[in-house]
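INTERNAL AUDIT FORM
Audit reference: QA-55
Scope: verify that the stored structure record matches its stored sequence.
Auditor: D.O.
Record contents follow.
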Amino acid sequence: MLDQGQEKQLGFLRSLRQSRAAAFRNEIVPHFRYVFQSGFGLFASAIFFAVLVWYVDLIKDVPEDWPARWVGIAVLSLAALRAPLRTYFRPADSVFLLAMEVSVAQAYIRPALRAAIVAAVLRTLAVFCLFVPVYERAPETAVLADGHPTALLGILFAIVAGCNVYAGWRERKAAAASRRVILKLARWTLSVLVVAVLLLKPLSIAIPLMLLCMLIVILLWKIPSQHALPWDRLIEEEAAIRRRWMAFLGWFVDVPTESSKPSRRRWIAWAGDFMLWKRGRTWHFLYAKSFLRGETFGAYLRWTVLAGIIIAVTSNVAAAGVVYGVAILIGGLQLSELRRVRFVETAATVPIAPEARLVAAAAIARTAGLSMVFILGLVGILCSFQLEVWLPLWVGGMLWCGWWMPRKIAKHSDEDEI
């Protein structure tokens, strides 16, 4: 009877995860038709084919000074380091499923971990297959490629990717946040080192070093105290994933707003304090603080930094201009998320004019957008010194982020509520 009851419990947990995954897909997928109707699909297709043409031209004739080593280390590290884990947990699970914690780890977490490992391996192998033609043809790596069998190298990178996912799971189990950070930094550092060594050193040196790094990480796991199942961490990660999906879909269609957890960001949150301290600027202050401490700012900052780095290292001015245009376009769409900020219900009782809310959101979006336009344009000018190219791009960016997107954000509709 006990075995039958346990098997029934395991079956319930498996079906629970499958039903939640299916419910999430059914919630998200129908909105994609609006995404494609907006023209984003056509835009993404144009970017894809442009990159494809560039890639084909590159592997036909790799330039002498093309940094194949650094590019290979960067792209393969990014592919292997990513270690997401979709659990579809909900806040109440830490109460109602706690009594089945052992069974949850076996029937719920283990399939999720296995799926994450498979996805990481396939993603890394796909990136590796794209990089191999460049690795074998680039002048600075062609000699190295001769001593690295492609199949064996692919297997080793697949192992690195799978181990990263499992290591990410062990990091989540650490009880202290500081220890999780230490474990993550150690994993990232050692993984990048392993990727670099596999690409640039003989395998007789690279494989033993790879095993040594894996042993170091395993020993680090034994230092911190651990949870049997990190409920709170997994629930927070799942909520963050849902917020990111909803924020992306919110650029194109109205979707339910997911509550977000504010970040302190003391290094930038003080900027909101420069708002004029008077009643008419109350909404500006609220939106500035909500933006600087919210998830939108984090994504916006990362996107700006990434675009700036790409523009700085791109020697082709036309390619840098395309990157600039794409960055400004997507940055403006990210800022449109300010329109969907919702405050607590008691905000309706505050004696401030509700009609000024969207105007304030548009003003904050304009300030952030023009800052991005100025910074990325300045990077482009300093790296190429071709004002005849960058000044028109600068003007176009200011029109998009300084006029068009704020105008769309400030436009009132009957569905807008405090």
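Auditor finding: record pair retrieved intact. The CA atoms of residues 243 and 258 lie 5 Å apart.
Action required: none
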